[in-house]
Write a structure and sequence with these properties.
Length: 333
């Protein structure tokens, strides 16, 4: 079997798979109401979590089957020691074109210099409000000012920044327009992600994409579809008259984003998940720890790609009960 770096890997539905989201920890310094309970959770035993060297090996195998973009996520990736060294080695892996980070940004300012030095290409910052009290309510933390400072530092360092907000009924409705205003003077993408009925998210009420869109048009004027490409994901982007940046929507639930899905997910314990919503997974840790080489991991990756379902099934069969058991801090968002 040959190892190729420019090949296109397609799944059973003809979708090109070139993007791997890598969760490096299930731990987090925040407790977002839709993600992690206030008392925390029982962390995965240390021995169960992949070392960063093992994770790097899996990234190299992924590159050999056509993955060129890696997103580092968690839990909160910046609580994992050695993250910048890991990012440097993934960035230097043959076939990998971009390495980006999804973070709550509380610690981003502390690590920014070393991340930039390691070659990070962009950061996605999760920020659901511009109100310090609402931030405390949503995250259980006083880190709001640190997040704002980190965001400014990331932009000043010249990194591409996307900000992600999950609109939730009765929680941060008043923040939708002020958050969008961040993109007025800054060349950044402000994205609204529909709350998914996974884990604690299943107990909250999402604000549908259509409503967020309408609120924004009422306040800001017409949102015009933007055809250019921004990033690797399932977001659709819009331009607003007078705005330097773009507004994006990730409508996981009301418009299935599965048709263009290009991704795989690796959990911190080495389970490769072909779909966020599916129970299917391939245990790459067993292969890596059993002495499997890059070719063996690549073979398992190919098999996992073929397990990708056509679309997610958030609300089918059991009304979503099955998904309440899933945890975004383990799957990596
Ligand atoms: N801790 C990092 C952060 O918050 O950016 C990375 C991991 S977090 C699980 C990744 C993303 O998942 C965040 O943008 C978060 O808002 C989103 N997320 C978590 N639970 C969600 C849910 N139930 N529905 C929609 N998005 C969710
Ligand atoms: Fe932590 Fe991110 Fe989950 Fe919030 S969304 S609790 S920051 S992992």
């Amino acid at each position: 079997m040959s190892v190729g770096y420019n090949l296109l890997m397609r799944d059973g539905f003809g979708r090109t798979i070139d993007y791997l989201r890598v969760s490096v920890t299930d731990k987090c310094n925040l407790r977002c109401i839709y993600c992690m309970p206030p008392e925390g959770v029982e962390w995965m035993p240390h021995s169960e979590v992949l070392t960063l060297e093992e994770t790097q090996k899996i990234c190299a195998a992924a590159a050999s089957v056509g993955v060129s973009k890696i997103k580092v996520t968690g839990g909160e990736p910046l609580v994992r020691r050695g993250l910048s060294t890991f990012i440097r080695s993934v960035k230097g892996t043959r076939g990998i074109e971009s390495v980006t980070l999804t973070t709550n940004a509380v610690l981003l300012g502390d690590f920014l210099d070393e991340l930039v030095d390691a070659g990070i290409d962009a950061v996605n910052i999760s920020l659901d409000t511009l109100n310090a009290d609402v931030f405390r309510y949503i995250t259980g933390s006083d880190g709001f000012e640190r997040v704002l400072r980190s965001m400014g530092m990331a932009r000043a360092a010249g990194l591409a920044v996307k900000v992600n907000c999950v609109p939730i009924r009765g929680v941060n409705e008043a923040d939708i327009v002020p958050l969008a205003e961040l993109a007025r003077h800054e060349q950044m993408a402000m994205r609204f992600i529909e709350l998914m009925p996974l884990g604690l998210g299943a107990n909250l009420v999402p604000i549908p994409h259509a409503e967020t869109f309408e609120r924004l048009e009422r306040a800001l004027g017409v949102l015009r579809p933007f055809d250019g490409r921004l990033g690797n994901g399932p977001a659709s982007y819009y331009s607003v008259e007078g705005f330097a940046g773009k507004i994006g929507f990730i409508s996981a639930v009301s418009h299935s984003f599965c048709g263009g899905c290009n991704r795989l997910r690796l959990t911190g314990t080495g389970l490769l998940k072909p779909c966020l919503a599916s129970d299917a997974g391939v245990d790459l840790k067993a292969i890596v720890r059993g002495g499997g080489d890059i070719l063996a991991i690549a073979g398992a990756l190919r098999a996992a790609i073929m397990l990708k379902p056509m679309r997610h099934d958030f609300y089918r069969n059991d009304g979503g009960k099955r998904h309440k058991k899933k945890n975004m801090f383990r799957i990596g968002g």
